[in-house]
């Protein structure tokens, strides 16, 4: 029995001597400890999860756009009122652009303020898109919409402002360039 205990201790020592030093020497060669490697693995796992979440969101956005079919935009080079701009779009089988997501590229299409397809002309404070859908999320400038002078019912996008805060209500009779979407 005593011999078996000695043999067992020798086996355990051999395992300790052959495995642990090899792992330790590899780590020391790279200047990393086991704790450093575990932390690095954890960071990589978090990054993979973040990238997977981002990929999933991009896929949802892409799928949403594909449901609409091909989308084309027209950016005007002349100035018109909101109503005249909308009529121009409608005469060509389109309408003023609807911005219902954080679509940063819409702001990148223009260098100056443009009409978008949002207004509260029917009922003050009840913003609706040209397709009659209600506004779900807005990207308003600070203190907007404010209906200054009681006559600001149409919405412009001002690309000089922050992408997520660049909408302003102004009188529909003002003249701006516009974006059509079909």
UniProtKB/TrEMBL annotation:
Alphabetical UniProt keywords: Coiled coil, Disulfide bond, Lectin
Classification of source organism: Eukaryota, Metazoa, Chordata, Craniata, Vertebrata
PROSITE patterns: C_TYPE_LECTIN_1, C_TYPE_LECTIN_2
Residue ranges that the Swiss-Prot or TrEMBL entry lists as coiled coil: 34-68
Residue ranges constituting the C-type lectin domain according to the UniProt record: 68-181
Tagged with keyword Disulfide bond: yes
Pfam family, one: Lectin_C
Descriptive protein name: Si:ch73-343l4.8
UniProt superkingdom: Eukaryota
GO molecular function annotation: carbohydrate binding
CDD domains registered for this protein in UniProt: CLECT_DC-SIGN_like
């Amino acid at each position: 029995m005593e011999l078996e205990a000695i043999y067992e201790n020798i086996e355990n020592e051999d395992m300790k001597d052959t495995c642990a030093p090899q792992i330790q020497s590899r780590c020391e060669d790279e200047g990393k400890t086991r704790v450093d490697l575990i932390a690095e693995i954890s960071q990589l796992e978090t990054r993979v999860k973040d990238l997977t979440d981002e990929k999933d969101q991009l896929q949802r956005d892409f799928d949403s756009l594909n449901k609409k079919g091909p989308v084309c935009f027209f950016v005007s080079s002349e100035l018109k009122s909101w109503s005249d701009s909308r009529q121009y779009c409608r005469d060509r089988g389109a309408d003023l652009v609807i911005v219902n997501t954080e679509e940063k590229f819409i702001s990148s299409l223009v260098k100056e303020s443009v009409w978008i397809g949002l207004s509260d002309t029917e009922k003050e404070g009840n913003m609706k898109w040209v397709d009659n859908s209600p506004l779900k999320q807005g990207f308003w400038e600070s203190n907007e919409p404010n209906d200054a002078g009681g006559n600001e019912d149409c919405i412009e996008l001002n690309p000089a402002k922050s992408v997520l805060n660049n909408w302003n209500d102004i009188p529909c009779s003002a003249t701006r360039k516009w974006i059509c979407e079909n």
